[in-house]
Design goal:
alpha+beta
Length: about 190
């Protein structure tokens, strides 16, 4: 299912999601090459809210550029199967091997601002990520590893501990708190 169809089927959970859903739909109609980073203003990324089987813990990574504990995910880089991208990124960034979608449907949408930064020795200008989030379940007993070029820690944490671990207040208030609230409503 393509992203436009997924966005049209998504029932917004809150005002942030409703506004970002409409902005994402506009971008899909107005912006070229959204699936590629060559669109330096806005491009598509995907994230995974990875929970354990009991839905009591979430897998987070300490993101080197953001300098905060964060969800896992990455750029579409030309791929249009965003769920497949989320699964691949989760495996690559954490080491989990036993992972599956809780649902194949889009779990959440966000328009994320990215401040200018240095990546692999090159300056990347500030831009937007049109982000599609998927709800995944992983085995919390799988061995974890650090992907040193992207993160410096990977760990399971209780849903209620995400707020204290997140150093970016906006990310907690508008994204992670929403994802946790959706998870509680989903069960």
């Amino acid at each position: 299912m393509d992203l436009e169809q997924q966005l049209n089927e998504l029932v917004p959970f809150n005002e942030q999601e409703a506004c970002d859903r409409l902005a994402a739909l506009r971008c899909l109609q107005e912006q070229p090459n959204l699936y590629l980073r060559q669109n330096e203003l806005v491009h598509i990324t995907t994230s995974a809210w990875i929970v354990n089987a009991a839905r009591t813990r979430v897998l987070m990574a300490y993101h080197n550029i953001m300098q905060s504990w964060a969800w896992l995910g990455g750029h579409a880089d030309g791929e249009t199967d965003l769920l497949a991208v989320a699964l691949r990124e989760a495996r690559e960034e954490s080491g989990v091997t036993h992972i599956r979608p809780v649902t194949n449907r889009l779990y959440s949408v966000e328009m994320l601002t990215v401040d200018g930064h240095i990546k692999r020795g090159r300056y990347v200008s500030s831009h937007l990520h049109l982000n599609a989030t998927y709800l995944l379940e992983a085995d919390e007993h799988d061995p974890l590893f650090v992907k040193a070029d992207e993160n410096s820690g990977v760990r399971w944490m209780a849903l209620d501990d995400v707020e204290a671990a997140c150093s970016k207040r906006w990310d907690w208030e508008y994204i992670y708190a929403k994802l946790n609230a959706k998870l509680k409503a989903y069960q």
